[in-house]
């Protein structure tokens, strides 16, 4: 069985300044930027593989490149070095409400966002009740309301319900478990556990040790764009905490 | 071949394209009580203004073919499609940055989707054009020429041209913030540098040569060929085919090159 996520020598370079805007001509005509650079590597020399059904938690301080790595796995950012191969569809729990438009009704939004993630209208009809039930009675009552009139919690609940019904084999999670009220959070946790039990691969970013311990078996530790730890999640959390304490 | 993989990617996601186009049309028409009418009112008002100015004030009917109203209406409608595409595709990636950041779709889709949505609005405005045509045929001022078969060719060619232009503008705007302003000025100049309110035959010989470089000139020539029995300007049409495909290829290359930096920026 080949790994579902395979990152090899992954690297991505960012600009500190906005100087790049001047260098457009070079990028287009020479294929590279010749202007003096002030850049840094947000991630470099990252290699790892994730097998099917694994639950991986990504740990690291602010600015260590966690979200960037997640985005490259999701395919919404392109590495400058190396590459990442993802075998199978991805359900990205990143920027959950990205596909929703304030001025349309919640119902229209749900169908449109579902369409963006590749669900046909018939498939959406089938899943509609499941999604809205999961989002809760408050959301159900407001399905014909303009989406912008939803509270931010309700907006995220609907979006979470939609993405988690996508049924893709790989689930990427970026700190979204911290949404909603206590009751809804527990529902989210249950659903995540069901997805894991169903053999899905989970790749999550979190600062919450409780979440990491609960879902992840394996930990990856990023420090300033380098992969400095890969092992059982408990050890990785300890390593991270030790580093954080030492830095204090 | 550079165009094929992109085209294949878009076709594979045509369902998503369909969703996006529906959303665009939905958003556009949901907020307005007379929705669809705006699509035709705008160009009609423009056509009316040019008609009044150029027939009653400048008395310059002869710069176009007769009936001059039909001549202007065709030009203005087609130009409106092109100019709206250029304006909106230049903002395509920025305006939808949240979606671009959160969905892994072929990024060319964000450009194509605008050209298709605007294209559907253009198709919806065609009945106005046919209405004028039928009126002038009824009063005996013009006839339908068999060259009307060039009309669909013109639509396809304009579609490809707009996609090509959009593929260049969309990523460049992300990296170069002043681009929309430049596009706005270019379009305003483009309106007069395109035979919309005048025919190529009315331009001095030097300008006629320069107009060969404007792909919209040949496209408009094909739109009008079925309604005006003048001699067909073949060099202009050939030139617009060549420029359109060159633009499309250039657009694909530019988009590919700039994709990675653009994704970091939005």
Automatic annotation (TrEMBL), chain A:
The keyword Methyltransferase is assigned to this record: no
SUPFAM superfamilies: P-loop containing nucleoside triphosphate hydrolases
Residue span, ABC transporter domain: 22-248
GO cellular component term of the entry, any: membrane
Classification via InterPro entries: AAA+_ATPase, ABC_transporter-like_ATP-bd, ABC_transporter-like_CS, ABC_transpr_TagH-like, Bact_Polysacc_Export_ATP-bd, P-loop_NTPase
Stretches assigned to coiled coil: none
Protein family according to the UniProt entry: Belongs to the ABC transporter superfamily.
Name of this chain's protein: ABC-2 type transport system ATP-binding protein
TrEMBL record, chain B:
Membrane topology qualifier: Multi-pass membrane protein
UniProt KW Transferase keyword: no
Recorded GO CC terms: ATP-binding cassette (ABC) transporter complex
Membrane-spanning ranges: 36-58, 65-82, 110-137, 149-176, 234-255
Gene Ontology terms: biological process: lipopolysaccharide transport; response to antibiotic
Family to which this protein belongs: Belongs to the ABC-2 integral membrane protein family.
Name of the protein in its database record: Transport permease protein
Cellular location(s): Cell inner membrane; Cell membrane
Cell membrane in keyword set: yes
Entry keyword set: Antibiotic resistance, Cell inner membrane, Cell membrane, Membrane, Transmembrane, Transmembrane helix, Transport
Pfam families listed in its UniProt record: ABC2_membrane
Domain ABC transmembrane type-2 stretches: 34-258
An example molecular function term from Gene Ontology annotations: ABC-type transporter activity
